[in-house]
């Protein structure tokens, strides 16, 4: 039976409620010094604010080595009533010390992903519910190919979905060629993130035709120039018959972006983005993108 693997256990996909399909409660990178998401009380406040707007679930895409704080996720989920899905996986090489990457060379990377999906993250006992990897700007470097092949191997062992950070929204077709073509991952097990950052309707339609999931996440301080084009991109896909392949998320990656610190944060997805999309494609379509689609995208017949 298919289930979404949350930090409190496997749940029926129909029980997720309104889902932020791509966000971060905890996140830390040397590329964002001083903006780390580390504070548990701030994470709790963000979930409470999201819940107050009608939110029911958050999929955290924070991968290995980026401050996931897995042990803190179950109590936060219980205290706020918001289901949380954790991730395994690996981001771009620039987010890690070379020593960390060297320790993961060879077969160990896929084994790590499988272990975190089945046994738990570290000693926390919290099992990941997806694998997060990343591409580069209009290309896949050796690191991206290594991590994606390991993700594919872990998918074949567990059934877990693979969520992909697309750098500035680019490289979608190269990712699909590698994961689905070379590595044999079914397209419906692949989620492409950040497509709002590159509002290329031709590429969007080609990617959607493969059967993968397309995630539109934001707003983002660093990529706000394309935020206003997201409703048009979503409308074009919905009108082409791909409304059942779309996901929406907030992607809060810095402390300044949290609503409790003066930014838009998770609640903004429901408070402002949702009504803007309702005006573009209608309430029924947006409801499906935020409830039915996430349940289908992240539900797995776990092995």
TrEMBL record:
Where, per the database record, does this protein carry N6-carboxylysine? 132
* Positions with a binding annotation for Zn(2+) 2: 132, 165, 194
**Gene3D superfamilies registered for this protein in UniProt:** Metal-dependent hydrolases
List the GO molecular function terms.
Answer: hydrolase activity; zinc ion binding
Q: Which residues form a coiled coil?
A: none
Cofactor(s) the protein needs: a divalent metal cation
What the record notes about the co-factor is: Binds 2 divalent metal cations per subunit.
Q: Does the keyword Metal-binding apply?
A: yes
User: Which keywords does this chain's UniProt record carry?
Assistant: Hydrolase, Metal-binding
InterPro entries named among the record's database cross-references: Metal_Hydrolase (IPR032466), Phosphotriesterase (IPR001559)
Say which family it is in.
Belongs to the metallo-dependent hydrolases superfamily. Phosphotriesterase family.
The name of this protein is Phosphotriesterase
